[in-house]
């Protein structure tokens, strides 16, 4: 079957296909029913969005992962509208800002999320509440609609389709643009790369307001004619039962979700399931190996973003710990963000320790033609991404002599300790080897005099306690742990704070520093023993910060 030029074409292809296409705990729809439901919603959308001067054909979706979400995505594609995925963890003025910024004229939501909208200034917004009788009555007259009959305008590959808010936790989120053509091409690429077929079932448990679920899970399923199974919100305890119930073969993840799955009690039937592949980001080599050993499922680390400015593909010869090489057509380089010069290749000690992190780690840029389509009404953010004809990803990498790329964290996650640059992700990958931890986050806090100090938050496995001597012994045994990498402060917490997309909320951790409600251990001097941070030692530290006129947060 030839590749489709638009998402709308992929939706139309489902018409007449009576195999199971979409399921959750309570509903089962065939592919044909999905196409028919999308056609009905597209016809309704056309009637709800008459042409207005300056009015954008933008639809907001504030839903959990219910069948209504992919139905409205499909409807928007058919109608030539664009979808803004609205994050339900946002509140008040921030939530209203997201809806207004993306110029939504219609908002689709559910009763559980209606309280979030109380008191918000959203003039002119039409709100549809999917789990109500009024909604069903509104849709009923459009039951006989067919795909492609109702459109707001021409549907082309360059038609705007997604306004995906970036998952950054600082500043107002930016809405990255994605056209129908780019999403259709991304789905086709993953179908080819992972040999996805019509008999596969994609388990969508990451939130659909984020690109991970839509671009890497829903789009390839649509392109291959595969089934889709939904979990309203990610649940580690329901993961395997869902996979077995739905016959799921493929899923996407972020690193923290993998840690949650590994923290569930092991069972004798952990490998009794049809899963063949997981695709995602930031699982880390240690957790990926543990996952494959326990569940028998390989996790394929990828690299991409909602912006689509650069992509890395894994090949069979990719070394452990590396993401892969540049995707075809990309001219990727690791460069100094200060000088723009290409960083030298990474050099490794026999144990795998990176010997020249200070010069080898830099920002990943795409010097070739970038598929980045911009941000919605944010020229300043676009200018920051596109500089000197290059696309700057905002992510730290290093490259080995063979050209394989290794992720080293976000540019915001770089630490500078005693004038040496460190990448948080590299330290996290080492600390994750400790068999007592279920999750790790590494972040910078200010040094009292200058630069940064390394702080780590550790979420321990069930039944484990923090033993400072055992932790120090573990650190001493890690041959690739550089002398500046050991954490000066260790926060022991029950759970790591997460963003709405299940990524670790490092901004919150940095903000709390060692002035938090969890137990904190520290080294008075680098390389010394770990001891509990007491009120007296905290006071002494704060005095030291005050002496140098530095803020601890």
Gyration radius, in Å: 24 Å
The helix content, as a percent range, equals: 25-40%
Decide which structural class fits the backbone.
alpha/beta
Molecular shape: globular
- Give the overall pLDDT as a whole number: 92
What topology emerges from the helices and strands here?
Blueprint: H1 7-12, E1 20-23, E2 28-30, H2 31-48, E3 58-62, H3 68-79, E4 82-85, H4 92-101, E5 106-109, H5 114-117, E6 126-129, H6 133-139, E7 160-165, E8 175-179, H7 180-194, E9 201-204, H8 211-224, E10 227-230, H9 236-246, E11 250-254, H10 255-262, E12 277-281, H11 285-295, E13 299-301, E14 312-313, E15 325-326, E16 332-335, H12 357-360, E17 362-366, H13 379-385, E18 386-387, E19 390-399, E20 405-410, E21 414-417, E22 420-423, H14 424-431, E23 437-446, E24 452-460, H15 468-476, E25 489-493, H16 506-512, E26 520-523, E27 530-532, H17 535-547
Parallel strand pairs: 1-10, 3-4, 3-5, 4-7, 5-6, 9-10, 9-11, 11-12, 12-13, 24-25
Antiparallel strand pairs: 1-2, 7-8, 14-15, 16-17, 17-19, 18-19, 19-20, 21-22, 23-24, 25-26, 26-27
Helix pairs in contact: 2-3, 7-8, 10-11
């Amino acid at each position: 079957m030839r590749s489709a030029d638009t998402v709308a074409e992929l939706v139309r292809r489902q018409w007449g296909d009576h195999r199971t296409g979409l399921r959750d705990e309570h509903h089962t729809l065939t592919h044909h029913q999905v196409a028919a439901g999308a056609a009905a919603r597209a016809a309704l959308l056309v009637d709800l969005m008459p042409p207005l001067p300056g009015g954008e054909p933008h639809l907001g979706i504030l839903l959990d992962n219910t069948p209504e979400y992919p139905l409205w995505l499909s409807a928007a594609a058919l109608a030539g509208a664009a979808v803004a995925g609205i994050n339900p963890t946002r509140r008040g003025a921030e939530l209203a800002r997201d809806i207004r910024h993306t110029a939504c004229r219609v908002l689709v939501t559910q009763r559980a999320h209606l309280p979030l909208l109380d008191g918000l200034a959203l003039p002119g917004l039409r709100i549809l509440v999917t789990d109500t009788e009024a909604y069903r009555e509104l849709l009923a007259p459009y039951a006989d609609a067919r795909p492609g009959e109702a459109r707001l305008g021409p549907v082309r590959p360059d038609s705007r389709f997604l306004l995906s808010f970036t998952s950054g936790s600082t500043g107002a989120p930016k809405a990255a643009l994605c056209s129908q053509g780019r999403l259709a091409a991304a789905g086709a690429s993953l179908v080819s790369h992972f040999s996805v077929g019509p008999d596969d079932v994609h388990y969508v448990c990451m939130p659909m307001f984020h690109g991970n679920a839509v671009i890497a899970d829903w789009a390839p399923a649509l392109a291959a004619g595969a089934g889709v199974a939904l979990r309203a919100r990610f649940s580690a305890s329901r993961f395997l039962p869902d996979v077995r119930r739905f016959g799921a073969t493929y899923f996407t993840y972020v690193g923290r979700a993998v840690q949650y799955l590994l923290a569930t009690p092991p069972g004798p039937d952990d490998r009794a399931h049809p899963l063949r592949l997981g695709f995602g980001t930031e699982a880390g080599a240690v957790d990926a190996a543990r996952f494959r050993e326990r569940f028998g499922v390989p996790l394929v680390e990828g690299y991409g973003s909602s912006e689509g400015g650069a992509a890395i593909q894994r090949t069979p010869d990719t070394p452990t710990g590396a993401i892969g090489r540049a995707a075809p057509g990309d001219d990727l380089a690791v460069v100094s963000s200060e000088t723009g010069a290409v960083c030298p290749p990474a050099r490794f000690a026999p144990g795998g320790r990176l010997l020249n992190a200070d010069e080898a780690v830099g920002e990943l840029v795409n010097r070739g033609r970038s598929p980045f389509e911009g941000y919605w009404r944010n020229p300043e953010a676009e200018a920051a991404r596109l500089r000197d004809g290059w696309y700057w990803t905002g992510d730290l990498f290093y490259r080995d002599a063979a050209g394989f790329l290794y992720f080293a964290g976000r540019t915001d996650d770089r630490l500078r300790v005693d004038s040496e640059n460190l990448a948080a992700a590299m330290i996290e990958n080492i600390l994750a080897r400790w068999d007592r931890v279920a999750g790790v986050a590494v972040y910078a806090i200010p040094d009292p005099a200058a630069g940064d100090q390394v702080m780590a938050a550790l979420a321990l496995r069930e039944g484990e306690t923090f033993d400072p001597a055992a932790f120090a012994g573990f650190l001493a045994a890690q041959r690739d742990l550089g002398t500046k990498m050991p954490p000066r402060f260790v926060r022991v917490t029950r759970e790591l704070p997460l963003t709405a997309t299940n990524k670790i909320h490092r901004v919150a951790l940095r903000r709390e520093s060692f002035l938090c409600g969890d137990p904190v251990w520290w080294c008075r001097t680098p390389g010394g023993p770990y001891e509990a941070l007491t009120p007296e030692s905290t006071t002494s530290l704060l005095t030291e910060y005050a002496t140098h006129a530095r803020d601890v947060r």
